[in-house]
């Protein structure tokens, strides 16, 4: 009597499992899940900043002054927006950015209940115009999107803590332990 055995031997199964494990590890290294999460976070910040920028522009179109000002020409600032070239975070109570967010919601330019992550900052120039929205990017991909010209959206190096969008970012400077690389979205 001749019995035929069909199937894989234990050695063959171990070899197949090892090959699949190596392929899975290689795929995981290529996809870099932490980088994917960071990219998603940066995309969320870019979307939020874009919504704020659009609502500020709609506000300006209807009132002829920005929400951090109280009249045309920005002769006076809305409290607590007291100084030009000051950078403040959204979602932080008592700041200019929080007051702007409240004004945009109260005038219907943003939905009621809109919240903005406190990592997004508002920086207003003298006279109320221009302005920038900025944040420190998390993903390696966004950190390499250097601005080529001042005033273009992209990565900048903050020379001082209160001035996020002044110096154009370069590969030699970002990321750098002595400088903060900031993504700036300009008006």
Automatic annotation (TrEMBL):
Family matches, as Pfam families: N_methyl
Zinc among keywords: no
Residue intervals passing through the bilayer: 7-31
Keywords: Membrane, Transmembrane, Transmembrane helix
InterPro entries assigned to the protein according to its UniProt record, in alphabetical order: N_methyl_site, Pilin-like
NCBIfam families reported for this sequence: IV_pilin_GFxxxE
Protein name listed in UniProt: Type II secretion system protein GspG C-terminal domain-containing protein
Species whose genome carries this gene: Candidatus Roizmanbacteria bacterium RIFCSPHIGHO2_02_FULL_39_9
């Amino acid at each position: 009597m001749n019995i035929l055995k069909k199937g894989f031997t234990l050695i063959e199964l171990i070899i197949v499992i090892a090959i699949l494990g190596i392929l899975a590890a290689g795929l995981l290294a290529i996809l870099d899940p932490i980088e994917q999460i960071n990219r998603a976070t940066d995309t969320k910040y870019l979307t939020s900043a874009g919504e704020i920028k659009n609502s500020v522009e709609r506000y300006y179109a209807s009132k002829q002054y920005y929400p951090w000002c109280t009249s045309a020409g920005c002769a006076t600032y809305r409290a607590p927006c007291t100084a030009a070239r000051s950078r403040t975070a959204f979602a932080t109570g008592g700041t200019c950015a929080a007051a702007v967010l409240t004004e945009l919601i109260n005038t219907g330019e943003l939905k009621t209940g809109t919240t903005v992550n406190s990592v997004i900052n508002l920086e207003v120039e003298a006279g109320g115009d221009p302005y920038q929205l900025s944040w420190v990017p998390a993903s390696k991909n966004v950190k390499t999107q250097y601005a080529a010209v001042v005033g273009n959206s992209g990565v900048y190096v903050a020379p001082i803590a209160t001035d996020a969008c002044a110096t154009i970012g370069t590969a030699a400077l970002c990321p750098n332990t002595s400088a903060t690389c900031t993504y700036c979205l300009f008006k």
